[in-house]
Amino acid sequence: MNFCSSTFNSSEQFMARAVSLALRGRARTAPNPTVGAVMVRDGQIVAEGWHQYCGGLHAERNCIAEAKAQNVDMTKCTMFVTLEPCNHYGKTPPCTEGIIEAGIPHIVVGTRDPNPKAAGGLEFLKSKGVKVETGVLEEQCLDLISDFLTWQNTNRPYSILKLASTLDGKIAGTTGRQEAVSSPDSFEDVQKLRTIVGAVIIGGNTLREDNPSLNCRLEIKPEGFTQPKAVVVTTKLPKNHEAFTLTTTRAKETIFWTTTEQAASETAKELINKGIEIIGLPCDEKGLIFDYGFKFMREKHGVLRTLCEGGGKLALSLVEQDLIDEFVMYQAPRILGNSLARANFAGSDKQFMEEALNFRVSRVSQSGCDLKIVFKPADR
Question: Is the peptide bond before 31 cis (omega within 30 degrees of 0)?
Fold first, then answer.
């Protein structure tokens, strides 16, 4: 790579580059956080690195290795890194020691590490005479490790919601017939999303109307990839289970979340005999309570991330139960204009804007002719 062409004007731009590098490792770093780093001299990026896979070198050490390969004098450089360098021995030695050994005099850090084992990295560097700055693009750097924070602070997977919508908020026509809303580029991007999750979640209507397979259909997949589990959320188990791809060709990878009554039914026994798992969830006046299902997926199957691709009612239920950590919207530049068409969120009885559930924009990018917007809950 010709790093000399990468000339920027501010600390924010250098950190933004480190953020984009960090995202490259998202498919293989779990349960570690995603981290990116750049080495800068005289306003130019001279080396880059990111955490590429769990157990591999951290971003800082990959960046240092790249700088060595380029014969960079690191004693005249500043390193920008999205997360506080670790100060402990794990599967790799401390990054703080690598920074000291390289003679890097100045470190700019996006956010402190919330992991107690990694605490003290910045203090150690300061004690060795390294100039340390913190808080550059801190919100973006915290967003990078929002999944890591979920794994550290809860016993459930990190929950991603994906929807593709027209400009007027429609995810399907009036009949619910399966039709492409977004571009082929967005379809491929969703397949990439499936490579980072351990389970894809849909509702019963999506099962009946679309008969999906819920597997990743990319030709080239990350090393060590396994197809995600398929989770179907429904209060009524399908009796005609021979009609669906999931209950025939993917039976042993399929799980139904349903009511405790349905979980004890004869239909449930038939599905279980095919190798399908049936999980009974508690209910309230609004329907199924999903928290138990998410915890089950992590505790029983080791699932660290889930991807919901269900319809508007399931999407709203997950949001209302505070079980969406990230919302990925593919906004197609199209207008349907029919009030009876399927909405991206549906089922609420709220009437006023002051009752709205709020999100904030985390990242925005182009996806073919669509706009890809990544949202995070506003109150976290």
Answer: yes
* Contact residues for 70 (Cβ-Cβ < 8 A; gap 6+): 3, 46, 47
Q: What is the pLDDT of the chain when averaged over all its residues? A: 94
Side chain identity at 200, as an amino acid letter?
A: V
Cβ-contact 358, 345 below 8 angstroms: no
What does the pLDDT look like over 139-167, one tens digit per residue?
A: 999 999 999 999 999 999 999 999 999 99
CA 95 to each of CA 39, 99, 344: distance values in angstroms, whole numbers, following the listed order = 14, 6, 44
Q: Which of 12, 48, 60, 253 is catalytic?
A: 60
pLDDT level of residue 2 (50, 70, 90 thresholds)? very low
pLDDT of 6 higher than 80: no
What's the confidence (pLDDT) of residue 9?
56
Q: Say how far apart CA 153 and CA 163 lie, in whole Å.
A: 27
Those residues with Cβ within 8 angstroms of residue 111's Cβ, 6 or more apart along the chain or in another chain: 82, 83, 84, 134, 135, 138, 141, 142, 145
Residue reference for tokens 């951290």:
58
Provide the token pair at 108: 């700019």
Q: Is 277 a catalytic residue?
A: no
> How do residues 24-67 score in pLDDT, each as one tens digit?
999 999 999 999 999 999 999 999 999 999 999 999 999 999 99
- Contacts of residue 164, defined as CB under 8 A and 6 or more positions apart, other chains included, come to 171, 181, 182, 186, 190, 329, 330, 332, 370
Q: Check: CB of residue 181 under 8 Å from CB of residue 169.
A: no
